[in-house]
Amino acid sequence: MGKHVIVGAGQVGGGLAETLAERGHEVTLVTRSGSGPERPGISRVAADAADVAVMRRVTEGADVLYNCMNPRYHRWPIDWPPVAASLLAAAESSGAVLVTLGCLYGYGPVDGPMTEDLPLAATGTKGRVRARMWEEMRAAHEAGRVRATEVRASDYYGPRSSDQSYLGPRLLEPLFAGKTGLVLSDPDIPHSYTYLPDVVRALAAAAEEERAWGRPWHVPTAPPFTIREYAVRVCEAAGLPAPRLRRLPSWALKAAGLGSPFLRELGETRYQFDRPYVLDSAASQAVLGFTPTPVEDAVKETVVWWRGRTGLGRAAVVSPA
């Protein structure tokens, strides 16, 4: 078994740490506060990932270094560059494979399905930050300094989804309480959503598969669906009444952004929800070795997780058709 270092213990990093520990790996989880799952096989370290000297010590003898960190939206231009440089330096000194959790922002607005060979043509601040991170990793890989790959996902859903998720607690809590769900965009536009357990599987697979190194990959992701379709599936699986949804008016979203940096930053990526947004993961499925979890199964697992988390909506779960 190997030594795996993970930076970030959020909705992806925490799940990845548990998965790798269950497989018998030695896992070191790095966060500023030293937080993360408490279980055998996981060592938690409180450290600043931007500190090169510290990360070199932490990754000494490591086989894989995963970047699962996610700074606050409004701090991406400030926080990402020093962290990315630090982890690149740590991977180079340790020889660990650098696996970075990425997103689709670097592509910018596109027409048609997104594939990994699209140019990184983003004009927004956050998209340019992520594009630069990958370009620096790729250059280091091509120069023979590191072995690196980036695994890109669309918006998350499923167990562990955070409050920032469009299909997370913000939507689920009112549905399970029998109330109207408030959505931030048109609930009838198809959108690719990536199941969180599949994100974890893709990161672990990319670390082990040499063919994955040196280029980016999309997390295997199911065909796109709408927020309304998802809400209907959740309520059917949970035995709840048909969902009621209400879209937050654009003026109200802008007003809310005055007091919320996260909501204010959504304006830059608004284009993702104004028209169909489709991720193509055919290439990665062949290399990473698995297909996306069917939406029906993902919904059922999400309902079970949500009930265990909150105790809301105690009707029997209906098996998906």
TrEMBL record:
Q: What Gene3D superfamilies does this protein's entry cite?
A: NAD(P)-binding Rossmann-like Domain
User: In which organism is this protein found?
Assistant: Microbispora hainanensis
Q: What is this protein called?
A: NAD-dependent epimerase/dehydratase family protein
What lineage is this protein's organism placed in? Bacteria, Bacillati, Actinomycetota, Actinomycetes, Streptosporangiales
Domain NAD-dependent epimerase/dehydratase, first and last residues per copy: 6-211
In which domain of life is the source organism classified?
Bacteria
Q: By its UniProt entry, which Pfam families does this protein fall under?
A: Epimerase (PF01370)
What SUPFAM superfamilies does the annotation carry? NAD(P)-binding Rossmann-fold domains (SSF51735)
